[in-house]
Each structure stands twice: as structure tokens, then as C-alpha cells.
Amino acid sequence: MVQHRLQREGIRVRGLVVRHHVEGSEMDGGLVYFAVVEFVDAQGGRHTFQAGSSGVKGLPVGGEVPVRYLPQAPNSARIDLRRRRIGEVAARFAGGTLFTAIGIWMLATGR
After folding, report:
1. 39, 69, 78, 95: which has the fewest Cβ within 10 Å?
2. Ranges of H-type helices in the chain
3. Backbone angles phi, psi at 4, to 5 degrees
4. 9: which residues sit within 8 A by CB, 6+ positions away?
5. Quick one: CA torsion of 93, 97, 98, 104, rounded to 10 degrees?
6. C-alpha gyration radius of the chain
7. In terms of C-beta density within 10 A (0-12 exposed, 13-18 middle, 19 or more buried), how is residue 89 classed?
8. What one-character DSSP code corresponds to residue 10?
9. Strand 73-79's sheet: what is its strand order?
10. Smallest Cα–Cα separation from 45: which of 65, 71, 21?
11. What is the pLDDT of residues 59-69, one digit of tens each?
12. Strand 46-50 relative to strand 64-70, pairing
């Protein structure tokens, strides 16, 4: 829903990748990288947020990225790259499909 509101009501600005946040460990299956982006809103306030999806390919530190945020809620900011929006929707759709399939399988097998 937030993504839909951002597309309808969001303000587009340019953000700057200031660093990458790293989670996980190499021992536990690998590291996951998230871009940390800083932008200035229409009132001149400076905000920083972490991308909601991992991967920093094409998002180097110091690089500019398009950002969208809701005017009344700058903390709603998201990186506004089409490929990221499609990826986030696809991941949620796949998770929902898997959850539904497991439920149907459990009903069908009487578990």
C-alpha cells in the first residue's frame, strides 16, 4: 500500500548513497548489503533511510538514486527504481503463493 501511495502522492527527489549497511556473516551463509540513502525534503530537512531490499549492484557509495517520499511522512522514503519495485512485488507475490499452496496442501492431505 505504501508503494502505491508513493506512486500517486509521492514527491520525487534525488538521493545520495552514503554507505552500505551489512547484515549477516560469511559463516552463516553470506553477507547481505543494503544501501543507506540520504536526501533533502522539500522543506530542506535532511533524512537518511536504509533500502528495504538487499543488493547494491548499481548503487555505489556516492552515487545518486531517485527517491520518493510522502510529503507528510519523509520516513516513508523508498528508492524509486522500477526494477526494485518489481522485485519487491514479485517477492511478496511468491511468498503469498507459497503460503497459499502449503495451506491447500495441508487441507488436501488432512493435516
Report:
1. 95
2. 2-9, 82-109
3. -65, -45
4. 70, 71
5. 160
6. 18
7. exposed
8. P
9. 46-50, 30-40, 11-25, 64-70, 73-79
10. 71
11. 899 999 999 99
12. unpaired
